Amino acid sequence: MKYLLFTFFALLLACNVPKKEIKKKTNTPKKEKTIIVKEPNLIKNELIVVFKNPKKIEDAKSLLKNSGLNFHKMAYDKQNYKIGIVRIPEGKRTFWLDKLQKTKAFKEVAINTKNTLKNLIEKEENTLISVRKTPCFGDCAVYTLTIDKKGDVIYNGIDYVLEKGIREFTLPETAFKKLTKMLAEKDFNEFKDVYDDPKITDLPSTYIISNGKQVQIRLWNGIPDELIEVHEYLEEILLAKKFID
Predict the structure, then answer these.
(1) What InterPro entries has UniProt attached to this entry (predicted)?
(2) Are 77 and 25 spatial neighbours (Cβ–Cβ below 8 Å)?
(3) Mapping DSSP to helix (H, G, I), strand (E, B) and coil, where does residue 234 land?
(4) Which residues pair with 186 in a beta bridge?
(5) CB of 134 within 8 A of CB of 205?
(6) Rounded to whole angstroms, how far apart are CA atoms 92 and 52?
(7) Could you tell me the pTM of the whole model?
(8) Distance in angstroms (rounded) separating the CA atoms of residues 205 and 90
(9) What stretches of the chain adopt beta strand conformation (E)?
(10) Which of 52, 89, 140, 238 suits a disulfide with 204, CB 3.0-4.6 Å?
């Protein structure tokens, strides 16, 4: 009997012992990081255009006018490199960007942002020499080539070339030094603007720009030796790369 009473009291005491509070783990939701991508500081309803032929500015302006666009102003005006601002209708920026890029009047068309003009001017002022080959009725190579003052090269093969599209590379130091030496031997401003015979048709044009001077060559006759040597050396570089044949 005493044993039973003792057991009863033991159970009673056990039931009255305060239970330890069990804290439930709560998962605190992690705060998601919001990444804000800054959009370019667009200048509303404006495009920047780089004129392909600085000597035919009025033709390009007429094209813009006939398209119903407003040529706003010349933003950079050098003898052989001109950048203009074109105003376009509300909501038509993408349409006109694509359309003007397909014309033959401009070599570059871009949306006008805070840094667009600055970048284009820096690119131009850092250019050592550039070449542009135009089409003919036959299989003439069509491409552009730009070499900057550090020896970095941008080639864009367009038609009748072995390598189409944009390719970038850097000239070896010896090749770059040779080119700069050749360019230093004769000031481009001493060359004529055009070497041509208007009586002969179906001739492609080669435009070479260096030191702010553009030279157009249609007829390879009576060309100064220094100019021929520079052109041939540039072709040798592309031939070695197997970009042209």
Answers:
(1) DUF6438
(2) no
(3) helix
(4) none
(5) yes
(6) 23
(7) 0.72
(8) 38
(9) 42-51, 70-78, 81-87, 106-113, 127-133, 142-148, 152-159, 165-170, 194-195, 206-210, 213-217
(10) 140
Domain 42-112 sits in CATH at 3.30.70.80
Question: What's the length of the chain?
Answer: 245
Q: Delimit the domains of the chain by residue range.
A: 42-112, 126-241
Question: CA–CA separation, 167 vs 164, rounded Å?
Answer: 8
30 by Cβ neighbours in 10 Å (0-12 / 13-18 / 19+) ranks as: exposed
What pLDDT digit, counting tens, does each position of 50-72 carry? 998 888 899 999 999 999 999 99
Q: How far is CA 237 from CA 54, 168, 170, in A?
A: 27, 13, 11
Q: Residue 238 is encoded by which pair of tokens?
A: 């592309």
By the 8 A CB rule, do 64 and 81 touch?
A: no
Number of Cβ atoms within 10 Å of the Cβ of 201: 9
pLDDT tens per residue, range 26-52: 555 555 554 444 545 556 789 999 998
Phi, psi of 147 (to 5 degrees): -125, 125
The answer to whether the beta carbons of residues 44 and 75 sit under 8 Å apart is: no
